[in-house]
Design goal:
This protein has a domain at 21-98. The protein has four helices and no strands. Helix content is 85%, strand content 0%. The chain is mainly α.
């Protein structure tokens, strides 16, 4: 939904579409990696491998940040304004995603035996 709104802003604002394409592509790829890593970490936790699960999450988190930064950098080297647009788009997408995850955890039901009594 945020990507669709960003597309409208890019089209109406006359921003470089290369920046949108690069930012959107790397965002979707990193979200896919995040989903796969979360699924594998959940399986590792179910198997009792807490260290492996946390290592997996840590490694993929760092890898996703490096992936996004590299794509933004390469886009900026190809076309300066497109790199700026891609960087701003990725920053906005990250901020919205981070806020949405925080709100979903805040309003989620607490599992039995957890939370404040």
């Amino acid at each position: 939904m945020v990507l669709a709104a960003a597309l409208a802003v890019f089209l109406l604002g006359g921003f470089p579409m290369l920046g949108f394409a690069a930012g959107a592509a790397v965002w979707l790829v990193q979200r896919g990696v995040q989903m796969v890593a979360a699924k594998r970490a959940k399986a590792e936790l179910a198997a009792g491998n807490r260290q492996k699960a946390m290592g997996l999450i840590a490694a993929t988190t760092l890898g996703r940040v490096w992936l996004m930064a590299t794509v933004v950098l390469l886009t900026g080297l190809a076309e300066r304004e497109a790199g700026l647009a891609a960087g701003v788009l990725v920053a906005v997408l990250f901020t919205v995603s981070f806020a949405a995850q925080g709100l979903s955890h805040l309003f989620a039901d607490q599992p039995e035996g957890q939370g404040v009594a």
